[in-house]
Amino acid sequence: VAVWCPQGQQVSCGHIVTCAGLHSDRLAHISGCSPQPRIVPFRGDYLLLKPEKSYLVKGNIYPVPNPRFPFLGFHFTPRMDGSVWLGPNAVLAFKREGYKLLDFSPGDFLDAVTYSGLWKLVLRNVSYGLGELYRAFSLSAQVRQLQRFIPEVTTNDVLRGPSGVRAQALDSEGNLVDDFVFDGGSGAVGSRILHVRNAPSPAATSSLAIAAAIADEAQRRFRL
């Protein structure tokens, strides 16, 4: 299998494991896999706790997750540099790599809004979606969520922070996929590729257990 890099280099290998995140469905599809599940991007915006208020948070604080929406729920995350991140929310991103509010891609937007799975999800959860959208624009609404855990936090204690984009796998019935999805293409090239189309989140980013699961799957599929 030959892989061409953007800089023009060619890398030859016997097998490939892809973990393409926001583009995992597209990459899998062009190698002969099913277009399902589709990736729908959701942007999560964080707040930052002002340094003089960091004493309020002694460790990670997470809400009990709602199994219908595992990615919803504000949490408090102290970081190695001493900063404390608060959030995130979850709103539809208008670009697969849309880390800013006004980022927009016509192709990515149409890809999302013409997908029946997204509409089924939205129509089943209109109130949740409107609530998330409102909190995306209202700082006070976000702070009220935080006050459920630490009542002392006020709007004067927080700043707008960075954003991330979640590559949410969504099936055609509008169900959020929250387990592993491994896939392989067809033909002489596609059969040598293992696509990791979805992995459990959160706590998956640096998980050695998940790395072991992917290695086991590659060994099984490729008979290594």
Automatic annotation (TrEMBL):
<dbReference type="GO" id="GO:0047545">
    <property type="term" value="F:(S)-2-hydroxyglutarate dehydrogenase activity"/>
</dbReference>
<dbReference type="Pfam" id="PF01266">
    <property type="entry name" value="DAO"/>
</dbReference>
<keyword id="KW-0285">Flavoprotein</keyword>
<dbReference type="InterPro" id="IPR036188">
    <property type="entry name" value="FAD/NAD-bd_sf"/>
</dbReference>
<feature type="domain" description="FAD dependent oxidoreductase">
    <location>
        <begin position="8"/>
        <end position="216"/>
    </location>
</feature>
<protein>
    <recommendedName>
        <fullName>L-2-hydroxyglutarate dehydrogenase, mitochondrial</fullName>
        <ecNumber>1.1.99.2</ecNumber>
    </recommendedName>
</protein>
<keyword id="KW-0274">FAD</keyword>
<dbReference type="InterPro" id="IPR006076">
    <property type="entry name" value="FAD-dep_OxRdtase"/>
</dbReference>
<comment type="similarity">
    <text>Belongs to the L2HGDH family.</text>
</comment>
<keyword id="KW-0560">Oxidoreductase</keyword>
